[in-house]
Amino acid sequence: MSNNFERAQTLVEALPYIQEFAGKVVVIKYGGNAMISPELFDAVIEDIILLQLVGIHVVLVHGGGPEINDMLDRLGLESRFVNGLRYTDRETMDIVQSVLCGKVNKDLVSTIARKGGSAIGLCGLDGKLFEAIKMSGDDYGYVGDITAVNPGVVLNAINDGHIPVIATVAFGVDDDTPYNVNADTAAAKLAVSLCAEKLILLTNTRGVLLVKDDDSTLIKIIRPWEIDNLMAKNVIAGGMIPKVECCADAIAGGVRRTHILDGRIPHSILIEMLTDEGAGTMIY
To answer: Is the pTM value of this prediction over 0.90?
Structure first.
């Protein structure tokens, strides 16, 4: 009886959040360990389908670094990084496009379908969803900076009742080539173009920690004007810097709330969106 009561209480707690977010767009960037572990993979897909069923418009943006590394290893090619970005020569770009737009994207779409959801796979080339130019500065090969987002194909999918699943390969406007683009950045820019209610970045950490490696020091809420001070104190450092900057850019572009969540926690998306406690760091 007590278990049933607790389940009922959980649903009651979720009700005001469902009412608040019904009909709104939520962009989720998905990658890292959550894509590798079968348990976490299933939990993410179940969260997304449940959100769709209660009327929340989920847009899923995905990476696929481990899968790309695996394919390069199989072909005997080196995975090379410059300033944390994958160096992408012509051969690597072909592999990136094949793995992201083909295997990873369609695996996600088919898994959503098997679990009772409805999804459409897209990439930045479709309808020139993401336009990009070659990234300046150091030589990264075919890595691009997004210059424009044309969300029509995504809006069409949402209006037809589907979950858009988007691979982050962009349409080159300065050269006859696709570009490999950062998935966090793509998700943030897409969230702005869709006037999204939320941007959620799934990561491999609890969120922003006041003390490195101490999960008990999780900072649950950060205001944009606090970011520079936290960077100066080295609280926001390393790989967390570009993620926080993506969230700040999304906020500046009109997205109401952004979240950095631990993708290693099963159902962290539902915990963040539909409970009082939440999970991870919210920047808004």
So the answer is: yes
